[in-house]
Specification:
The chain is α+β, with helices and mostly antiparallel strands and 376 residues long. Helix content is 26%, strand content 34%. The protein has a 6-stranded antiparallel beta barrel with strand order 2-4-7-8-9-11. Helix 3 packs antiparallel against helix 4. The chain is globular.
């Protein structure tokens, strides 16, 4: 009888504990922390003890993940964008790269006459951090030019159209009346033709419409946001990407820079590398790739004329090399890993995070790191 009563007491206590745990898990995280007597080891690893608010009208960089076009989008359409650069605060990171911003299209204005471009207005209402916290915000951006810039753009283009029209008008007058007519009229025929051509061109430019707005996936926008929520600050080391080590293979990234591909697009990530291969494997350029967080893989670019390029070379066992590997990628802003594969089954043997290397090298914006290198 005593054993039965004891069992009932134990089961009852477990039942109450589970109810309390469920209630705790169901409570939404509101973007702030409270001081308690119990702190989990996990939180100690991720967060500092600081909390900060987003500065009033703080500007952050976001990378858009879908097409926003004046011709296909409508007001009220939802979309997502990703924070491109860590937002720092205190001794850590307030909003890490990869934080997702939820937004919607507030207004779309079609292009108008006088060459005035269309524009789009966006609003944002909350952020979702990589660890799952939802932070309410107020934010927005517009692609509309300021009045001064808009007028300057329109006047500049119209003057260009007028000037071009004047040239065509002068040439037409010369062809119709000839050089003799221009001489006899003391140049008035050419001047008249130029003036007429300019007037016609100006009239056409006044009726010319501007361009439709288009924001493509991968485009970066600057958004002003604010929030009244106190947000826990994350430790820098907690945001480091996972890596995979391979015994005997030591890969050190000494520099990262962004370059144009052969077609003039600024999308090529180049890595200065020191590689010491004391492993049991050889690695050719076919066994090395740059892989992003969407698992898209990019092979080393052969369109490089660096004297110390490692493309099309084999890094043999027992060998130490230094040089450059370049990769043309879809979006340089995404997270990437330098991956070394087993040539027999193409399984990853080593993964080195580019984001970790950027942190170690104090590179906050890859576009600001672009630079000319000595070539052949």
């Amino acid at each position: 009888m005593k054993k039965k009563i004891l069992s009932i007491i134990i089961l009852s206590s477990l039942f109450v504990s589970n109810i309390q745990l469920a209630a705790y898990c169901a409570a939404p995280f509101q973007g702030h922390i409270e001081e308690t007597d119990v702190k989990t080891n996990e939180n100690d690893k991720i967060f500092t003890k600081e909390v900060e608010k987003i500065e009033e009208d703080k500007t952050i960089n976001l990378t858009v993940s879908q097409v926003l076009a004046g011709t296909t989008s409508i007001e009220g359409d939802e979309f997502f964008a990703v924070v491109s650069n860590d937002v720092l605060a205190g001794s850590g990171v307030l909003l890490p790269v990869g934080t997702v911003a939820h937004g919607s299209i507030k207004n779309i204005v079609d292009p108008k006459r006088l060459g005035r471009d269309g524009y789009i207005e966006l609003s944002f209402d909350y952020l979702i951090t990589p660890d799952g916290r939802e932070i309410p915000i107020e934010g927005g951006m517009t692609s509309k030019l300021t009045p001064a810039k808009s007028v300057a753009k329109t006047v500049g283009e119209n003057i260009t159209y007028t000037a071009v029209g004047g040239v065509y008008g002068a040439v037409a007058a010369m062809e119709l009346l000839g050089l003799e007519g221009a001489i006899l009229s003391q140049g008035y025929t050419v001047m008249g033709g130029a003036a007429l051509g300019g007037v016609i061109a100006l009239g056409l430019s006044l009726f010319r419409k501007g361009k439709d707005v288009l924001i493509s996936p991968g485009d970066e926008i600057k958004v002003r946001i604010r929030s009244t929520e106190a947000i826990p600050v994350m430790k820098h080391e907690a945001l480091r990407q996972d890596e995979l080590k391979y015994e005997g293979l030591d890969v050190k990234i000494t520099d990262i820079f962004l370059e144009e591909d052969p077609f003039g697009h600024l999308n090529t990530i180049s890595l200065d590398l020191i590689i010491r291969n004391q492993s049991k494997s050889d690695f050719s350029s076919f066994d090395i790739a740059l892989v992003n967080d969407l698992r898209n893989s990019y092979n080393p670019s052969i369109f490089t004329d660096y004297k110390n390029s490692l493309a099309m070379k084999t890094i043999k066992r027992g060998e130490s090399v230094s040089g450059i590997l370049s990769f043309s990628v879809d979006n340089p802003k995404r997270a990437h890993w330098l991956v070394f594969y087993d040539k027999r089954n193409h399984k990853p043997l080593a993964k080195i995070s580019i984001d970790n290397a950027k942190k170690d090298l104090n590179i906050t914006d890859l576009e600001k790191k672009k630079k000319k290198r000595k070539k052949l």
